Amino acid sequence: MTERIAIVGGGKIGEALLAGLIQSGKQTKNLVVAERMSSRAKEIADEYGVLVTDVASAAEGAHYVFLAIKPDDVDSVLRQLASADDSADSERVTVTLVAGIPISRYENALQAGTPVIRVMPNTPMLVNEAMSAVSAGRYVGDEQLAAVVGLLESVGKVAVVPEKQMDAVTAVSGSGPAYVFLMAEAMIDAGVALGLSRPQASEMAVQTIRGAGLLLSESGLSPVDLRAAVTSPGGTTAAAIREFEANGFRHGVYEATRACAQASAKAGHRPDVEGLSGANGRRTDSDTP
């Protein structure tokens, strides 16, 4: 059966998902985007050859509706989705990529029994290397969950987790790219301080992080094993690791991820986010469109 997929929001994450779906073989005639900014809507239509329309029209007849929007826009979009006139034989699955808003808020705002799936993606989705965590609402069937996981796999890897783990997911993978970027910044600045030009230091740091990530992903070895392989007793790497540990590197990572998880939990329980009616919830920093 050909399934219609709607993406609400034509920002970077929405566009990345659209591009990934097309690359995975989805036909453009079965894809539709809702984007309110006319200039952006034209860009997407011209670039990908898909229909770009309003929320209600995009959702009508859609089997899956992905919300790639900011928390500020959730209230308005949910009202439009609730009023969408779906065909009787189509059970629409709402998939939210919005950070900080629990599944129950969508279930309460939409038609009773609506299947809702919550996703925490991250920005490597822009290069088809996302790590997305997925949690299913109470009305989601196994086949529906499997189908959404398959769609998200077009832009990276997917893990299914209970919603109670979403704050931990945010701390590790949702905000995780920022930690790596911060490390890259520090390595580049250190290289410049040691006498390298900034372009030289940038190229070396970026390629080192890229290569290390691929090695970690593809070697089958643990981070401990890989670090030990580089660290000769009494050698140069050992001297660097000793300074990292002396300056609390590992403790800093623990504390940073804990603070991130706490901030995520707090964002999910703010009255302005939970109520949705008249919501003015700000996005968290963890890669929401």
TrEMBL record:
<feature type="domain" description="Pyrroline-5-carboxylate reductase dimerisation">
    <location>
        <begin position="163"/>
        <end position="265"/>
    </location>
</feature>
<keyword id="KW-0560">Oxidoreductase</keyword>
<feature type="region of interest" description="Disordered">
    <location>
        <begin position="264"/>
        <end position="289"/>
    </location>
</feature>
<dbReference type="InterPro" id="IPR028939">
    <property type="entry name" value="P5C_Rdtase_cat_N"/>
</dbReference>
<dbReference type="InterPro" id="IPR036291">
    <property type="entry name" value="NAD(P)-bd_dom_sf"/>
</dbReference>
<protein>
    <recommendedName>
        <fullName>Pyrroline-5-carboxylate reductase</fullName>
        <ecNumber>1.5.1.2</ecNumber>
    </recommendedName>
</protein>
<dbReference type="Pfam" id="PF14748">
    <property type="entry name" value="P5CR_dimer"/>
</dbReference>
<keyword id="KW-0963">Cytoplasm</keyword>
<dbReference type="InterPro" id="IPR000304">
    <property type="entry name" value="Pyrroline-COOH_reductase"/>
</dbReference>
<feature type="domain" description="Pyrroline-5-carboxylate reductase catalytic N-terminal">
    <location>
        <begin position="4"/>
        <end position="86"/>
    </location>
</feature>
<dbReference type="GO" id="GO:0004735">
    <property type="term" value="F:pyrroline-5-carboxylate reductase activity"/>
</dbReference>
<keyword id="KW-0521">NADP</keyword>
<comment type="pathway">
    <text>Amino-acid biosynthesis; L-proline biosynthesis; L-proline from L-glutamate 5-semialdehyde: step 1/1.</text>
</comment>
<keyword id="KW-0028">Amino-acid biosynthesis</keyword>
<keyword id="KW-0641">Proline biosynthesis</keyword>
<comment type="function">
    <text>Catalyzes the reduction of 1-pyrroline-5-carboxylate (PCA) to L-proline.</text>
</comment>
<dbReference type="InterPro" id="IPR008927">
    <property type="entry name" value="6-PGluconate_DH-like_C_sf"/>
</dbReference>
<dbReference type="InterPro" id="IPR029036">
    <property type="entry name" value="P5CR_dimer"/>
</dbReference>
<comment type="similarity">
    <text>Belongs to the pyrroline-5-carboxylate reductase family.</text>
</comment>
<dbReference type="InterPro" id="IPR053790">
    <property type="entry name" value="P5CR-like_CS"/>
</dbReference>
<dbReference type="Pfam" id="PF03807">
    <property type="entry name" value="F420_oxidored"/>
</dbReference>
